[in-house]
Amino acid sequence: MNKELFESILNKENDPKIKSSLILNFIRHAEKDKDNNITEEGIRQSKKMGEEIPLFNNLTIASYFTDVPRTKQTLDAINNNLENQAEKQDINVEFRTPIALSSKLKWNKESESQLEKINMIFKKIEKNQSFTKAVEWWLSESEDAGNVNKWTNDFLKAIVTFLKLGTKLKENNHLMLNFVTHAGATDKFILSLLKQKDILEKKDSLDKLGGALKFLEKVSIKLLNLDNGETKILLIFRDYNFEMKIEEIKKIIENL
């Protein structure tokens, strides 16, 4: 399973063929000024990203941003050009209203059972709406996490549940969740992953590979449900891409 296959979702005759998919994009905000708003160059680069993220038919895009102005400004610029791209290509893409991620989110052992309650067909997801309602429950029902580090860990744990939901998507259901954040959560996760893959040693930091996430840098987790019954997951960061299992990602997150 290689990066090119994921970047050409549904655009080529793949064997086995892709039945449904989930893409999680974690994006750091654009360049900011002294007042913590994004600069003109940041707006330009965000719009450029919106032109370059691949789109395809039957895709639903849900977007989330952390609670600082620069992340919302970045997301607005990205989404503006994503919508323009879809219109120019005349493809069927549904855009959901962006939702703010509070810095006080909480994830606990009861959360997944609560997710089941908001949709009786949780284990047999047939529509994109079922998935996004589950995500929205998590956003609306979460409570004060106490501090930023706790929020970071809880947010990453939620990724595992998103992936589990993604494996249950039925045919022709394709979802892209774009998270625009300030620095922290994504850096911590990718650093642990690279150490687990022995690319970095235990004492190393991301400085050895060019530093923490830069403005508008992206980490992607791409999940494909194939028509042979298999599910493939690829994580992409800079020049690295790995095929992974949900349990492997869960273990990394639990050990943060």
> What Rg is obtained from the alpha carbons, in whole angstroms?
18 Å
**Structural class by SSE content:** alpha/beta
Order of helices and strands: HEHEHEEHHHEHEEEH
Q: Residue share in helices?
A: 25-40%
What is the total tally of β strands? 8
Quote the beta fraction: 15-25%
Shape annotation: globular
Average pLDDT confidence is 78
Unreliable stretches covering 5 or more consecutive residues: 103-108, 117-129, 141-146
If helices are DSSP runs of H or I spanning 4 or more residues, what is the number of helices? 8
The major sheet is characterized as: 8 strands, mixed
Oligomer: single chain
What's the domain count? Answer: 1
Instruction: Report how far apart the termini are.
Output: 27 Å
Description:
The chain is α/β, with parallel strands linked by helices and 256 residues long. The protein has one domain (3-24, 45-174, 193-233). 39% of the residues lie in helices and 21% in strands. It contains eight helices and eight strands, in the order αβαβαββαααβαβββα. The protein has helices spanning 3-7, 40-52, 69-89, 111-117, 128-141, 148-166, 185-196, 246-254, and strands at residues 18-28, 59-66, 93-95, 99-101, 174-181, 218-226, 231-237, 240-244. Strands 1, 2, 3, 4, 5, 6, 7 and 8 form an eight-stranded mixed sheet that branches. Strand 2 (59-66), helix 3 and strand 3 (93-95) form a beta-alpha-beta unit. The protein is globular. The two termini are 27 Å apart. The model is unreliable at 103-108, 117-129 and 141-146 (pLDDT under 50).
